[in-house]
Structures are given as C-alpha cells and as structure tokens.
Design brief:
The structure is a single chain. By secondary structure, this protein is of the alpha/beta class. The protein is about 35% helix and about 20% strand. It contains 20 helices and 20 strands. The protein has a six-stranded parallel β-sheet with strand order 3-2-4-5-7-6, sandwiched between helices. Helix 3 crosses helix 15, helix 9 runs parallel beside helix 11 and helix 13 crosses helix 14.
Length: about 525
C-alpha cells in the first residue's frame, strides 16, 4: 500500500530511534515539518539554522546516537553548515535533511536555487538527492548507516515536489549489528601488556572515548602507578581528589603536568585524539586504544595500536598487567598533583576589574552537581575551565576540533531536551553568546531550565592577547555588549549580574534546582591564564 513520502520518512526515522529533530522552517521543508506534528518525533525550531545543527551535533555527542537536523534550501542550507562542520570534525553521526526547489527549477535562475551538495561535500560521508519517491527508504537507510559506521554527517536533499508523492517503499527496522563492539585482539593486548610491564614511568592519557570507564581507569592507574591526564572532552570524569590525577593536557593543562609527560617512558592513550605538539614529547613511546580505526596513530607514532571497545581493553589490561612497585615515580606524580592542587586553592591576585576567572571556575567547581552536564564554548573561558575545574560531573560537551564560538548555548538546549531531569550549565564568553543571543528565546519557548554563565569582560580576550604577544596593533577585539540582564528579561528569562565571588557562590548554591532558564552575567577581569602559550 502506497503512502506519502513524508509519512514514510518519519516512520523510518522513528524506527531508528530518532525522537528529536532540530531545524528552522522554510518553504522547501514546510510539508515535512507539518507532518511531524502528528508523529512521535518532536521538532525543535531555533532562531537560526546554525544553532539547530549545533544542537544536533551536541545531541549526538551526548547520546552517542544518530541525530537529525533539517534546513530549508538556499540560505537555510548555507546557514546550517557551521554545526555540520562541528559534527564532521568530531566524527559525530548526524543526518542532515535539506529542502530544494522543485525538480523543474533545478539549474535555472529560480529564487534560492543553489547546488547544496557543493557546499557540504567536504563535510559529509555520504550525500544524495531524493528525486524519486520509490528509493526514499534505500537512500535514508544508506545515509544513516554511513553516518553511524563512519562517524560523520550524511546529507539528503529532498526536492520540493517530492513531499506529496506516494511511494511503495517500506520503512525498515533498525539494524542491531550497528551497535556491536569490536573485541580486543589478544596478541595485540599481550604486546601492550609487555610494554606496560617494562615501563617504570607510565602516563595514561584518556579522552571522551573512555567516558564510561571511570572506575576501570582508576584501578589501572593504581595498579601501574601511572599518572592520569585528561583531554578537555573527558574533564569531569575524575576529580582532583584522586592522588594520581594530573589534570589536563596542553594549553588547558599546567606546565608541571606537561613536563611530567616529557619524562614518561610510556604513554597509554585511551579513547583520546588530542595531541598538542607544543606540549608533548617529540619521540613518545605510545600504546593507543581506540574504538575508531582512523584515530590510531593519526597524530603520533604508536608502538602498539589496539582497535576495540575501550572498556573491554582496560578490563583485559587489568587482568594481565603486573602490579608495579615503581614508588619513586608514583611519589613524583602525586607530588605534581599536590603542587597543582595547592595552586588551585590559592586566592588569585586580581589586578583588574571584576572577578578573576579562576575564582569563578573554582566557585562553579564547588557548587556544580555530580550529575551536571556542562557545555563549554570556545575562547578564554574554556582555558580557565580546563585549568581550574576540579570536581566531577556527568558530561562536558565541547566543540572539539571545530572550536566554533557560540556552541555552548545550543549544546545546553540539546542537553536539557534529552535529559530534562539533569542539571545543565553553559559556560560561555560574551563574544560567544553574542553570536547566539536569539537562542535565549528558544530556551524560553520550550521552557528549558538551563543555567547560562557568561564571562563578561567586554573583549575577545584570547584574540587580544594573541595580538599583543605577536606585536600586532590591537584592533576590533573590543566588544559592544548589550545589558545582558535587560536582554534576558526582554526574552522572558531570569538574568542576574554578579560582581564578586561570594555573590557568585551564593547564586550558584541557590540555582541548583532551576525551574526556568537563568542567565548569570559575571563581570570578569581580563587576565591571561598563567603559563599559557599563545
């Protein structure tokens, strides 16, 4: 029995576990959006397509599942590219659906016609134009499989005159084999074990790929007396109280940790790809474990590479590696951690106006919940977070390799949509929020009770500091900010300004159980994080 193409598409998405779609209405997709109203899939409309695709990217990063975003043809397809690039850069499975002019207007001078696939080609793992209703299920299933298995974005362009077409195509059930994990190769595991047993100064570098392995990581570190260094995406998994925890790597880490990495005779990388050349050994001895084939050896040489589920790999290591007696190295690791912990507890010498960002991050660390989802932006606020956030949390969402400004707010919206019972906090600079201010209205529209913390110093601090150290004329980095409190109130959400750390702590304590969106405007001093290489 034939059905409308829109109905078949929605049923196919639903069968593959899609509950939310992010987008913005436009002529070429109105029929699809209208059909969603009576479906089990909820459509969330943003104020700009870029925010919708960033929400979809964050959704997928958070859940580890396929996400979907939808955009109009022409300008809509152009606007949506930012979040598509974010998903592409961080290998996040996403299905992008965009409309297009009618088939008879393809290639003409018709309004808003553009060759969309030319725009997204370098960012996608698969793309196709839906020009025949009978192949819609074939195209959708292939697009979703490619996105899931390759970790990237698939793009389907639907011609405007296809939506009302009837099709005999039958939606297909989800394929369970897509969730199967790769088991570790025993010979490679044994090679890794031999290297670990020989090492006297091991360091463990872990990333987002190991996010479900907190207890196993701690057991392994204690068994081999190995220091634990995190990438930013995995921060919050392990708190500073753990004696072998050394904090972050690179510009969000600290010099003493980076120096210790240089001394290591073996680096065990678990689910991490961050390898900043200015902060790592030139000739490292590395064992790398990853669930994604392409990640192994991508940025550095490896002695042994193990392609497998990270948790399975760590459990095998725990069974096979010998307990180490390298107490001198353990003492050194714990000494570095203690020095950094002491630095963390020191009050900042703040020579500028406003709250030192370090003190703001310390306050956030103190009052954040263990089940909090924290969404970071790009810029100096992220560096301060990486240096001084010392607590554990459920998740840290970042724009990893793409590093787009304006990521934190859309990411927080997506997090709250998917986990309505968990607390969600966005940490964003005034430059970043300036790019997505309209999404405050999205938060209000869907009553998403998130906490938005704005580091407000009226300047693009990272850019300004880079210009200074490069002896460039400092220009066009000063920001013309609105009154964020009045703007928040105009959007129907609560806004509060804080100008000292005690008031910030009080406000964070009071806002742990939010019932509505809250924006906290922190008057922030413009300081360069100590030891930062710009």
């Amino acid at each position: 029995m034939s059905q409308k193409l829109t109905k078949v598409m929605i049923e196919q998405l639903s069968k593959w576990g899609v509950n939310h779609i992010y987008g913005y209405p436009g002529d070429s997709i109105l029929k699809f959006i209208s059909a969603l109203k009576e479906s089990p899939i909820k459509f969330y409309s943003t104020k700009n397509e870029s925010a919708a695709s960033l929400m979809a990217s964050a959704d997928s990063k958070l859940r580890g599942k396929l996400s979907v975003c939808v955009g109009d043809g022409g300008p809509g397809a152009a606007n949506i590219v930012n979040g598509v690039a974010d998903a592409c850069s961080d290998r996040t499975p996403m299905l992008l659906i965009t409309g297009q002019v009618e088939s008879y207007n393809i290639g003409t001078n018709y309004n808003q016609f553009i060759k969309q696939l030319n725009i997204t080609d370098s960012l996608t793992v698969y793309s196709a134009i839906v020009s025949n209703p009978e192949v819609i299920v074939d195209l959708m299933v292939k697009a979703m499989i490619e996105a899931i298995t390759k970790g990237g974005v698939s793009h389907l362009v639907v011609l405007m005159d296809m939506w009302d077409k009837k099709t005999n195509a039958q939606p297909r059930d989800y394929l369970p084999h897509l969730d199967e994990t790769i088991l570790p190769d025993e010979e490679l595991i044994n090679q890794a074990v031999d290297l670990i047993n020989q090492a006297q100064k091991p360091i463990i570098l872990y990333g987002r790929g190991a996010k479900e392995c907190r207890e196993e990581l701690l057991q392994l570190a204690n068994k081999i007396n190995g220091g634990l260094i995190t990438t930013l995406a995995a921060q919050g998994m392990i708190e500073y109280q753990q004696p072998l925890y050394l904090g972050g790597l690179g510009h969000t880490g600290n010099n003493k940790t980076n120096n210790l990495l240089e001394e290591a005779d073996l680096i065990i990388i678990l689910g991490a790809t961050w390898w900043p050349m200015n902060y790592v050994p030139r000739e490292p001895k590395v064992i790398q474990f990853d669930a994604i084939k392409e990640n192994i050896g991508m940025n550095h040489p490896v002695e042994v590479g193990v392609l497998a589920n990270i948790q399975d790999s760590i459990n095998l290591l725990l069974e096979k590696v010998s307990k180490k007696e390298n107490q001198v190295w353990r003492d050194k690791v714990e000494g570095v951690r203690e020095l950094y912990s002491n630095n963390l507890s020191k009050e900042s010498k703040n020579g500028g106006k406003g709250i030192c960002p370090k003190e703001s991050i310390k306050a956030i660390s103190e009052y954040i919940s263990e089940d909090e989802i924290i969404c970071l932006d790009s810029g100096d606020s992220v560096v301060w977070f990486g240096r001084y956030f010392s607590n554990s949390c459920k998740e840290v969402l970042i724009s990893g390799k793409w590093r787009t400004m304006g990521f934190a707010l859309p990411a927080a919206l997506a997090a709250k949509i998917n986990y309505p019972n968990l607390p969600v906090t966005a940490i964003i600079g005034d430059g970043g929020i300036g790019m997505v201010l309209a999404e405050l209205l999205t938060a209000k529209r869907y009553n998403l009770a998130i906490r938005i913390i704005v580091f407000n110093n009226s300047v693009l601090a990272m850019e300004k500091n880079k210009m200074l150290v490069s002896n460039l004329e400092v220009d066009e980095v000063k920001l013309s900010n609105p009154d964020f409190i009045k703007l928040s109130e105009a959007c129907g959400i609560k806004g509060v300004r804080v100008e000292n750390s005690n008031d910030l702590k009080k406000l964070l304590a009071e806002s742990k159980e939010l019932k509505q969106t809250m924006l906290i405007d922190i008057s922030t001093s413009n300081l360069i994080p100590e030891g930062t290489k710009l």
